[in-house]
Task: structure prediction
Amino acid sequence: VQLVESGGGLAQPGGSLRLSCAASGFTFSSADMSWARQGPGKEREFVAAISWSGREEYYADSVKGRFTISRDNAKNTLYLAMNSLKPDDTALYYCHLAFPDTWGQGTQVTVSS
Result:
């Protein structure tokens, strides 16, 4: 089982980024997936989740209305579109599979002017 995130980088406040998570080694199309993040000096926190079908989405209050989680089961890829970025969104963003418990290596997002 492997999860590989990409798409992080430096963005200005108000800007956008799109993260990707390439999944392999399991049946991605049957798996609920999520994103989490860990900011400097903070605990890792939930960001967003999506059901295996893509029909159900869940968001942390801090990102609701700004971030959108999606998936392409044909490409075994999970996405996180981030808009209206704020400095508080600066963090290492992780892709997560619950069963078996698997985390990617993370991709750094820095929001700064």
About this structure: The CA atoms of residues 20 and 79 lie 5 Å apart.
